[in-house]
């Protein structure tokens, strides 16, 4: 038995397999990094109501994720390394934030090519993003619009709180949902204060009219 030849054969078999996995990982890491950057910029554009720019950035992010999907198609272990899930969560967040703020129908997980755990986590993050837009509405005295956004946040939370599965299945959804609850309560407090202040101003104005 030639043990040296056996070991050399294993080396020759392992090297191309590991080289392919390494290449897939490098492509995926780079693509995911670029996708996350595009998604972050898209969300900022949505907050500024620059919707066409947001769509462009979401499209670019989708192209990067498609490249990552191709790279890991034959490497399931690389696919489930975690960074692709994170990038797709950000992609879902960008798509859903745009839909919530602009009033579009929500795209499905299948429509945007995202697995359900990443989609649900992205939905929670998108609902949290509505806090910023709600505060912008409060500053602009768009209180009815702020109430609409808070209602969306409540609906999302009501759904996610019923998804009671282990974090290994949901990608840590429970933690994301808990964070959303805290955001909703702060937002509800801000909106309540704004509504009370508005009613007080209206009462004062009405009093002045009566006195006049």
What does this structure look like?
The chain is mainly alpha-helical and 212 residues long. The chain folds into 2 domains: 1-104, Up-down Bundle (Methane Monooxygenase Hydroxylase, Chain G, domain 1); 115-212, Methane Monooxygenase Hydroxylase, Chain G, domain 1 (Up-down Bundle). Helices cover 83% and strands 0% of the residues. The chain is built from 8 helices and no strands. Helix 1 (3-47) runs antiparallel to helix 2 and helix 2 runs antiparallel to helix 4 (83-102).
C-alpha end-to-end distance? 110 Å
Major sheet size, sense and barrel closure: none
Total number of domains:
2
What is the number of beta strands?
0
C-alpha Rg, in Å? 24 Å
SSE topology string: HHHHHHHH
**Tertiary shape:** elongated
- List the uncertain runs: none
Task: Kindly report the average pLDDT value.
Answer: 87
CATH topology of the largest domain: Methane Monooxygenase Hydroxylase, Chain G, domain 1
CATH class wording of the largest domain: Mainly Alpha
């Amino acid at each position: 038995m030639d043990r040296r030849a056996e070991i050399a054969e294993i080396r020759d078999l392992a090297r191309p397999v590991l080289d392919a996995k390494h290449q897939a990982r490098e492509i995926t890491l780079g693509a995911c990094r670029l996708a996350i950057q595009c998604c972050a910029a898209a969300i900022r554009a949505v907050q500024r109501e620059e919707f066409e720019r947001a769509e462009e950035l979401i499209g670019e992010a989708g192209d990067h994720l498609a490249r990552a999907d191709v790279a890991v198609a034959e490497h399931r272990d690389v696919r489930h390394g975690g960074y692709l899930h994170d990038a797709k969560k950000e992609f879902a967040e960008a798509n859903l934030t745009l839909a919530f703020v602009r009033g579009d129908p929500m795209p499905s997980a299948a429509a945007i090519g995202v697995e359900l755990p990443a989609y649900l986590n992205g939905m929670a993050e998108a609902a949290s993003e509505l806090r910023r837009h709600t505060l912008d509405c409060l500053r602009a005295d768009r209180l009815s619009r702020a109430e609409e956004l808070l209602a969306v946040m409540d609906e999302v939370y009501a759904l996610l709180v019923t998804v009671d599965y282990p974090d290994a299945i949901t990608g840590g959804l429970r933690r994301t949902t808990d964070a959303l609850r805290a955001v909703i309560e702060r937002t509800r407090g801000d909106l309540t204060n704004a509504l009370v202040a508005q009613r007080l101003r209206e009462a004062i104005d009405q009093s002045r009219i009566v006195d006049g």
